[in-house]
Design brief:
8-stranded parallel barrel; 4-stranded antiparallel beta sheet
Length: 615
């Protein structure tokens, strides 16, 4: 039995799982020299949510990050996570975009491509695996592990056999939620080894508390590479600690040969780095056995929590986690990994926040139910499908077969701003987001989202913020108040969404003056800003013809114009919330007489966005 090799995830999945993918490149580069000395089989440093986070939040060029890491890690393989035909976005891309993206990733520094499909639909993996092999790089075909009535060991072995036939160099068992139990791992690794005779690489999040044991049993069964994360970004929703696994295998036939003191030095560096990002810390840093039921993957849990915070609804987290398995069953038991984890998770959040299941259905769920993401593993709830897509045709072929080549079209759309093929591919992933990013880059105005001050002394000098949860006593009665969101800040009467002793309420506050509080506690009244004139305001909904959003979000498209006739259920607006698009539909039939929203507007449920007059 040969030694076990280690892939460390601190530069990608570690911070994705614990601080919502917010680590900046500048905090990675100083320690790369030490990381390069360790002798890891690879360092996962790109792909997954890092590309999106670079552009959306950090305002960095993800390609430049890759080039800098490649230069800083001359002796270590750089590994990326690639979503097959979805690449790093949330839809299927045409084959020419897939091939171009893989080639440019290889050119800029990726050595190992871990390629997976959220549906485990092998048809969605073929082109990207072919592209990796054509680029002369290592193709790691991936089985996305999950549990359900339709997933068993023979099913996963058949997938692994198909990946081997495509020419993959290794097989990864991707246990993205920590569901794989030790003895099942032993059985699964043995079965895949026998079927493929390829090296097996195991990946398991620590959320459920099983991952350390799972890796050990997988190694005993013949797995030769394991995924871990240096201690400062390990455990909880992340991965087993690198130091712990290195120590556990030391002195055995599986000895990794890695230096514990060197890894501890690296971990100490990241311990200090992590303090900078305290505002993004996941609450899910310990063992959470609920994952064995809700199956929310480690890479999603911190982002889901952060997104619910942005919605002012973090108090609904438990309800969302309970709803996720129900939505997953309705959709035919897809493995919960990007993008299906976001598709299922966002729909579950909508079901909870709107107070009615499938009252509002995201565009991504509609596409999923049309077969546009691939073949569902199990039977889909036909009532939900009918509600979402009606009598539309269901795609049965490989979804990308329906997509014409689009690279030249994309290049033409962004040619005035793109300086390279990499810029065009960034635009391909996230068109609206990337266009804004490229415009700001051209103007020299790119700025990362701010980091709040760390440490008591720095926080003392920072602006004071009002409490969002408190108790009040009135006439001898004590009430527990929690602020969960606010409406228009420019309104004369500002709506606040609050929980009073656990009951959701909406209150209207009319500010007569506002107080600016300095760090030293001094205050001075200042005149409230004048409310804008009526034409500039979005009115509050007052009748059935007013169209509203189900949850806070951003307008990404307006589908109607004034004077247009619409039927009840016709699409009126498209809103992005929690990274998913949601089509807002007309509540009644009639004529559009007013549109109060435009593309790019941030909106909340208390705003009337379109007015329809019944005929």
């Amino acid at each position: 039995m040969s030694k076990v090799y280690v892939t460390d995830l601190v530069l990608r999945d570690g911070h994705q799982s614990l601080i919502a993918t917010r680590m900046q490149t500048a905090d990675m580069l100083p320690i790369c020299g030490k990381l390069d000395q360790v002798g890891f089989w690879s360092l996962e440093a790109w792909g997954g949510a890092t590309f999106d986070a670079c552009v959306r939040f950090l305002r960095e060029d993800p390609w430049e990050r890759l080039r800098k890491l490649r230069k800083a890690l001359p002796n270590t393989r750089i590994q990326m996570l690639l979503r097959g035909q979805n690449l790093l976005g949330y839809r299927n891309y045409s084959d020419d975009v897939v091939r171009a993206f893989v080639q440019k990733s290889a050119d800029n520094g990726v050595d190992v491509f871990r390629v997976f499909d959220a549906m485990n639909d092998l048809r969605n993996l073929r082109v990207s695996i072919e592209a990796v092999k054509a680029a002369g790089k290592h193709a790691e075909g991936t089985v996305s592990y999950t549990t359900s009535p339709v997933h068993d060991i023979p099913h996963f072995v058949e997938l692994a056999r198909g990946l081997a036939e495509m020419g993959c160099d290794t097989i990864a068992i991707k246990d993205m939620a920590g569901l794989l139990t030790p003895f099942t791992a032993y059985e699964l690794v043995c079965a895949i080894r026998e079927a493929t005779n390829l090296p097996i690489h195991t990946h398991s999040h620590a959320t459920s508390g099983l991952a350390h044991m799972t890796h050990l049993k997988a190694v005993e069964a013949g797995a030769t590479i394991i995924d871990t994360c240096v201690g400062a970004f390990a455990e909880g929703a992340s991965h087993p600690t690198t130091q712990s696994l290195v120590a556990a295998l030391a002195g055995t036939v599986y000895d990794t040969g890695l230096s514990l003191p060197l890894i501890e030095e690296i971990s100490a560096y990241f311990k200090e780095v992590r303090k900078k990002y305290w505002q993004f810390e996941s609450e899910f840093t310990g063992t959470d056995t609920r994952v064995l039921i809700n199956q929310v993957p480690g890479g999603m849990i911190s982002n889901l929590a952060n997104q619910l915070k942005e919605q002012g609804a973090i108090d609904r987290m438990d309800a969302v986690l309970e709803e996720i398995p129900r939505v997953r069953e309705d959709l035919g038991y897809p493995p919960l990994v990007t993008p299906t984890s976001q598709i299922v998770g966002t729909q579950a959040a909508l079901n909870v926040l709107t107070g009615a299941r499938y009252k509002s259905i995201t565009n991504e769920v509609k596409l999923y139910l049309q077969g546009r993401y691939g073949r569902a593993p199990g039977h889909v709830n036909e009532e939900v499908r009918k509600l979402a897509v009606g009598d539309l045709d269901i795609t049965t072929c490989r979804p990308a077969d329906l997509l014409p080549d689009e690279l030249d079209k994309l290049r033409g759309e962004i040619d005035s701003l793109a300086k390279s093929d990499e810029d065009v591919l960034t635009y391909a992933m996230f068109p609206d987001l990337a266009k804004t990013w490229l415009q700001e880059r051209a103007a020299g105005s790119l700025k990362p989202e701010p980091l709040l001050p760390q440490g008591p002394a720095q926080q003392e000098a920072a602006p004071r913020y009002a409490a969002d949860e408190f108790k009040i006593t009135l006439h001898g009665e004590t009430y527990h108040i929690k602020l969960s969101g606010s409406g228009r800040s420019d309104a004369a009467q500002r709506p606040y969404f609050v929980s009073v002793d656990g009951v959701s309420e909406e209150v209207l506050v009319e500010p007569l003056n506002e107080v600016a509080v300095s760090a030293g506690g001094d205050s001075a009244p200042r005149k409230a800003a004048a409310a804008p004139s009526a034409p500039g305001q979005k009115p509050r909904p007052s009748h059935p013809g007013h169209v509203t959003a189900a949850m806070p979000g951003t307008i990404v498209d307006v589908l109607v114009s004034v004077g247009q006739r619409v039927k009840a259920g016709d699409g009126v607006l498209v809103i992005e919330a929690m990274k998913m698009e949601n089509e807002v539909q007309a509540p009644i039939a009639g004529i559009v007489i007013s549109i109060f929203a435009k593309k790019g507007d941030a909106v909340t449920p208390d705003m009337a966005l379109v007015e329809i007059q019944p005929e």
